[in-house]
Fold:
Amino acid sequence: MIMAGRVTGYDYLGEDEENIKAAVYARGAVAVAFNARGAAFQNYKKGVYTGPCNTTDPNHALTIIGYGVEKKTRLKYWIVKNSWGSTWGQSGYFWLERGVNRCGVADFAYVPKTG
Structure:
């Protein structure tokens, strides 16, 4: 089934990761932005990313599509879709540490309003 809608604006989620979690659960995806410069992030391959980030000057848009908890470490994470293609990260996705505003992910989190 294909669903179509018209985006009429957006809602800012207020720098709160619990708001992001609720929006992912209810709406399925949240648009976020952060600064993607830095070799550690650009060379990500697998696992929960807990590395260094520049939390100022966002320069890259991403989509949070889910969340989980790593089995061995119990580290909470976001499942994030990147736009760099399927050869980057985990087939174009990565896990970003959740609950600590890693990379300032909650600073620029939005969901569309539809009508």
